[in-house]
Amino acid sequence: MKKEQLLNLLRQLESREKIPFSEVPKSVLEEFKTFGAQKGCFFVEKNGRGRNFKISNQTILKNEINRLTPDVDLDSASYRAKNLAINNDTKAGQTTLQFSHFHCKSVGEQICIENNGLIQDVSAVTKCLGGFNISIEDNSDGIKCLSNLILVENQQLLDDISWVPKGWNGILLYYGGNIHGRLLNWLKKSSFNGIIIFPDYDSVGISNFSRIKKEIPSVQWFWIDNWEHLLKKYGKADLWNEPKQFSTFNNLWKSFEEKTFPDAKLKRLMQKMREFGKGLEQEIVLLKVVENNDN
Predict the structure, then answer these.
(1) Same domain, 28 and 147
(2) Which terminus in the chain has less CB density within 10 A, N or C?
(3) pLDDT-derived band of residue 70, with 50, 70 and 90 as boundaries?
């Protein structure tokens, strides 16, 4: 039993004098019972057909609460600091980090973002440092940007931007596998000229697109030129055969058939994925550049 959980139960007992067995999680019931017997601060009281934990020694109980209570100000501490203070382990208990950090890069000149009245030319930052980070917490305000945004699933497409369509200007943001709820909320608060998501052509990518499309109807899927040929020639069977991918695909197909496909061309993509038994990794756009250079 984690110290944080034990402390919460002892505080409940202190304030209420007794707590029913039914309110203590079964996974820690015996351990909590043993703790009371060993410390001598509470005991098991029979109450008809039920049983309660009841205080037997208020002083000992108070001492145990004081012993377990960290001698720090937890209100201003980070999640990991709280875990360290309460559980002697930064990874125990609540492990959600306060901030999520997203690597970004601007493409083009004079790409600016505005946040709470402050304006930053991120194209100048990218030219100087090679990119920039956007840090987001649950209550972060959105930003305003007159340019476009492309969300890329894999970092390689942030490192090598040779795939970006000629003449396109805006910001690339690497989201890494799944659209986190925190990122989605931030996108809803933000204002861009347009938002495009460029995931792998697989069930996870389609699922992410579907989620973001529900919240931001204007979002678009990035369509690779000649994707059907590339899917057939370079597609990866693992992106289709893996059980979770396959199950997700079937659930999405059923949902889209009952309602509507979030993009008119997405139905054909899913049909071809099923026909070829493959998915397509987005890095194919970099191979395509090599092919074009060889011709």
Answers:
(1) no
(2) C
(3) low
Q: Specify the pLDDT at position 242.
A: 85
Does residue 210 lie within any of the structural domains? yes
Quick one: CA torsion of 89, 93, 98, 104, rounded to 10 degrees? 80
- The pLDDT value recorded for residue 50 is 85
What residue type is assigned to position 237 of the chain? A
Residue 75 to residue 89: CA distance in whole angstroms: 18
Domain that holds residue 141: 114-294
Length of the chain: 295
Q: Are 82 and 147 in a shared domain?
A: no
Is residue 193 a part of any domain in this protein? yes
Q: What is the pTM of this model?
A: 0.67
Residue 148 and residue 193 in contact, taking contact as beta carbons nearer than 8 Å: yes
- pLDDT above 70 for 174: yes
**What order do you get walking across the sheet with 194-198 strand by strand?**
132-136, 100-107, 170-174, 148-152, 194-198, 220-221
Q: How many independent structural domains does the chain possess?
A: 2
| Residues 163 and 287 both lie in one domain | yes
Residue 50 lies in a domain: yes
pLDDT in tens, 232-256: 999 999 888 888 888 889 899 998 9
Domain for residue 103, yes or no?
no
Supply angle C-alpha 159, 160, 165, rounded to 5: 130
pLDDT for 89 beyond 90: no
